[in-house]
Amino acid sequence: MAGVVLETLGTKKLSVLIISLLLVLAAFFLIGGLVSPAPNNVIDTIAMNCVDKQKLWQLGTSKPFLPRGKNACYHIDSLHEDQAKKVDPNQIVFSQWIPFIKKHNQLSMSRWFQNLIGVVDLEIEFTSKNPYSEEKSPEMLLEARLYGRFKDETDDDWRLIAASQERRTLECAIENDMREEGQRYNCDLLPLFELGSVYYDFYLINVRLPVSEKDEYNDNIGRLSTFKIIFIHQNGGFTKVWFSMKTVLFPMVLAALCWFWNRVISQGRSTNLTERTLFSLGIVLSVMNCPVEWFTLAFNLPFMVLLNDIRDGAFYAMLLSFWIIFVGEHMLDQIERNKLSAYWKHMTVVLLACLALLIFEMCERGRQLVNPFFSIWSSEVGSIAAFTFIIVASVAACVYFLFLCYLVFKVFRNISTKRTSLLHMSTFRRKYYSGLIFRFKFLMIVTLLCAALTVIFFILGQVSEGEWKWGDEDITLEYTSAFLTGVYGMWNVYVMALLALYAPSHKHFAADSDADIDTLSHEEEVQLTQVPSTSASEGSNLTSFMAKTAAD
Amino acid sequence: MLLMMMMMTTTIKRITISLQYHTGCRETAFVYSITSAAVAYSVARSCAEGGVSTCSCDNRVDQRPAGEGWEWSGCSDNARFGHKFSRKFVDVLEKGRDFRYMINLHNNEVGRVHVTNSLKKVCKCHGMSGSCTIKTCWMMLPKFRSIGDKLKDRFDGASQVLPENSVRGRGRRRRKFNFSPANHMHKKPGRRDLVYFEDSPSFCDRESSLGLGGTKGRECNASSLGVDGCDLMCCGRGFTTEEYTVRDRCQCIFEWCCTVKCKMCTFNRTRSTCL
Questions:
Q1: Molecular function (GO) terms listed (chain B) (predicted)?
Q2: Predicted confidence (pLDDT) per residue in A313-337, tens digit
Q3: Which ipTM score applies to this complex?
C-alpha cells in the first residue's frame, strides 16, 4: 500500500496548509457574523377579530376575510365588550395579512425568504367565572385557511393555498399569586403552519375557533382576549449569503473530488475501502452543496426544505460511516477487512438512526407538503410515534458513539504496543506503520477539533441567544448566522482537506517503480500477518472474536 | 391612528389641567408615567395589528433604501417604535425649563422604560427536523395591566426629591437627570423610580381649584384596612351603610368569546358611603 500525500508533505508545507485552512474557516465564520443578518426574522402580529356577519364560512363559502384595505372585514376591537355581545363565537374569524405597511409603503414578501412558519399565541385571561380547564388540557379545533396573492393582483385574486381543520391541545399555566381577574395565563405556543416556499407576495391567514353543543372542542379554553399570530421567515440577506457560499463551495469540492479520484485511478491498482469511502463522502457533500435552491426564486418548490433536510442528513450519516471505516481500516491488527461487510454492525446502527429520523421527517415535513397545517405533535398517536422515532435515533446515536470510542481505544492500544516493537522492524515496515499511525492521529486530531468546535459554537449559541456585541454598538456579530455558515464551511473544508491529504501520493518510500512497491508491500503484509508480534498475541482473543463476527 | 392621537391628546390635556396646580405630587408622577406608558404600549400594539401605516422598522433597516432592508433582514420592532413615538408625542407637551419640567420628563420616561423592560422573550425552535439547532426569539408585549401593576409599586415607593437645579446629561443621556432625594438616607432615584417634590393634598375635601372632588359620597369598603377602606377614605368623618336589592346576571354559561347566556337573579347587597 502506497503512502498518502499527508505523509510525504514536509512539516513546513503541512503547517502552511493547516494555517490557511484555519483562515478559510475564520472567513466563513466572519461572513456569517458580519455580512449576513440574523438567519430568521419574526413578524409578530395581533390578529384582527373579523365578524362573519352572514355566516358565510359556516355555509361553506371560501371567501377570504381581509384585516385591512378597501375590502376590509367588519371587525370588533374587543371580544368581550358591548360590541361583541350580539356576536356568536362561530362568527369570529381571526385574520391577518402579512407583510405590513411600514412608513406608508406596503412591503411584500420575497422569494428569498425561502420558508414561512406560523405560530399562534393565545392570550387567555383568568376569570373565576369562565376558567381555563387546568385538570385536563382542553382540545382545540382550529379551522384555518391560508391564502396568497401577488402584488399586481387585486383583492379578488386571493388564492387558497391550504384549508384544514386542525386539532391542538392548549397547555396553559398560571402561578397561584396571579389568580386574579384579568391576569393572564402563560400558554404554550401552538404550531399553526409551515410553508417550504415563499412564492407569493402577500399571505393572508384566516382562523376560526368553532364551538358547537355536540362537540367538546374549544370548550373550557377560558376567556380568550387576544389571538396573536407569529410568522417566522428566513431573512433574504441570510439566504443570499448562504446561496453564494454553496455556489462557491460546490465547484471547489467537485474539483477536489475529481482530482482525488484521478489520483486513485492513476495508481493502477484496485481501490481500497478507505479511498472508496472518502470518495462517497465527497459525492454526498457535493450533493449537499449543489445549489439547486436557486430554482426557488423562479418556481414554487415547497419540497425544498424537506430535500435540504434529507441532503444534510445524508451527509452526516456518510460522515459517521466514514469515521467508523477509517478507524477500522487503521486498526493495525493484521485483519484484512477492506470490505463494507466487515462493518455491518456499525453501519446498521448508523442506518437505523438515519432511517428513524427520515421517517420522522417524512411524517412531519412530507405531510406538510400536502397540508401545511399538519403537525405530528398535535395528535396523541402522532406524538408517541414521533417520540419513538426520536428515541430510536438517539439510542442508535449513543450506540454508535460507544462503537466509535471502543474502536478508537483499540487503535490507540495497538499503537502503543506497536511502538515498542517498531524499533526491531525493518525500515520499510517501520515506515509503513509509522505512516499509518501518523495518518490516523492526524485525522483524530482534526476530527476532534471540528467536532469540538461544532459543539462549543452550538453551546455558545444557546447561551448567547443570537447577537453578540463588541465594544461600540457599531460592531455586532450575528452569532446564529456565524454559527450556521461557520459549521457548514468547516465540514466542507474538512472534507476537502481529507480529499487532498489522503489521496495516494506519487512519491514513494524507497522503491523505484509502482510495480515493485506493490509486490514489496504485499510481501511485507503477508510477512506481517505471519510474524507473531506482541500485539497480535495480546489481542489474539479480540482478533479472533472480530474475525468471527466478520465471518458471521 | 389620527383619531387615537386626538383622543390621547385630549385625555392628557384633561389630566394635566386638573393637576396643573399640583404638578409636583406623587399622584401626578403616576399619572404622567402611566400616560406615556400607555401611549408607547398602544402604539406598539396597533403596529402589531397592522392597522397603522406610519410604523417604521428599526434604525438599521432605515438606513437602506426602502424595501431592500426589509428583504435583507426583515422588520420587526414595534415596541421600539412605540417607545420613540411616545417620546415625541408625550414629551412635547412639556414646555419650559424649570424643575417641574424635569420631573415630568423623568416620570414620562419611567413609564416607557417599564413598557420596554416588561417585554417577555419567547422562542421557537425550527432547525433541521424541527430541532433546536435554529432558535428564533422575539419580544412580546405583556398585558398593560402588569405594566400598571409595576408602576403602582413604583408609586408606592416613589422618592421625594429636592427642588434644586439638577444636572442633565447630554446626547444620549439627555433624559437622565440627577435628582437628590429629600431624605439623605434614601438612595438616589434611578431611571425606573418615580419622583415627586411636593406633598400630596389630602384628597379628603372638595377643592374645585385643584379639580379634586373630595371623598364625600364615595363608596368604600367597610372591612378593608387599605386606602379603599372606609376608615382611610372617609378621612375620619364616618360612613353610612345601607342594604339594597339588585337584579343581576347569574348562573352564566360562557364561551371563549362574546356570548354569555345567563339567568337573572335577585341579590341582597350592602353598600357603605362616606359622609
A1: cytokine activity; frizzled binding
A2: 899 899 999 998 988 888 877 676 7
A3: 0.84
Phi, psi of B261 (to 5 degrees): -100, 120
Read out DSSP for A235-298? -HHHHHHHHHHHHHHHHHHHHHHHHHHHHHHHT-SPPPHHHHHHHHHHHHHHHHH--GGGGGGT
pLDDT tens track for A189-223 = 999 999 999 999 999 999 999 988 787 888 888 88
Q: Where are the domains of chain B?
A: 2-210, 219-274
Q: What is the pTM of this model?
A: 0.85
- Kindly tell me if the per-residue pLDDT of A141 is higher than 70: yes
User: Residue A517 pLDDT more than 70?
Assistant: no
Size of interface A-B (CB pairs under 8 A): 167
Q: Does B49 touch chain A (CB under 8 A)?
A: yes
**Strand-strand pairing, A202-208 and A92-98:** antiparallel
Mean pLDDT score across all residues of chain B: 80
- How many residues in total does chain B contain? 275
Diameter of chain A measured on Cα atoms: 98
pLDDT value of position B72: 84
H helix or E strand, kind and range, residue B148: helix B144-156
Tens digits of residue pLDDT in B137-146:
888 888 888 8
> Are the beta carbons of A95 and A204 closer than 8 angstroms?
yes
User: Which whole number is the average pLDDT over B72-95?
Assistant: 84
Smallest CA–CA distance, residue A237 to chain B, in Å, is 4
Cβ within 8 Å of residue A528, ≥6 positions away: A334, A429
Q: Are A217 and A210 in contact (CB under 8 A)?
A: yes
Q: Which three cell numbers stand for residue B81?
A: 417604535
Q: Which three-class secondary structure state does DSSP give residue A221?
A: coil
CATH code for B219-274?
Answer: 3.30.2460.20
Instruction: Measure the N-to-C terminal CA separation of chain A; round to a whole number of Å.
Output: 27
Find, in chain B, the residue whose alpha carbon is nearest to that of A99: B50
pLDDT tens track for A155-186: 889 999 999 999 999 999 988 888 888 888 99
Which residues on adjacent β-strands are paired with residue B137? B123
A386 touches chain B (CB under 8 A): no
B45, B129, B145 ranked by CB distance to A360: nearest: B129
The CA-based angle A452-A454-A456, given to 5 degrees, is 65
Buried b (16+ CB within 10 A) or exposed e, A220-234: bbbbbbbbbbbbbbb
Question: Phi and psi at residue B198, in whole multiples of 5°?
Answer: -115, 150
> Which residue from A34, A37, A73 is spatially nearest to A52, judged by alpha carbons?
A73
Q: Which of A334, A532, A538 is nearest to A433 (CA)?
A: A334
Q: How far is B68 from chain A (nearest CA, A)?
A: 9
For residue B45, which amino acid is it?
A: R
Which pLDDT belongs to residue B9?
A: 60
- Cis bond upstream, residue B163 (ω within 30): no
Location of C-alpha cell 409636583: B24
Kindly state whether A103 is in contact with chain B, defined as any CB-CB distance less than 8 angstroms. Answer: yes
Q: Measure CB to CB from residue B256 to each of A89, A97, A104 and give the nearest one.
A: A89
CA pair distance A149, A157, nearest whole angstrom: 6
Selection from A278, A138, A285 nearest residue A221 by Cα: A138
Which candidate in A34, A35, A36, A44 is best for mutational testing of the B interface (most B CBs within 10 A)?
A44
Task: Name the pLDDT band for A113 (thresholds 50, 70, 90).
Answer: very high
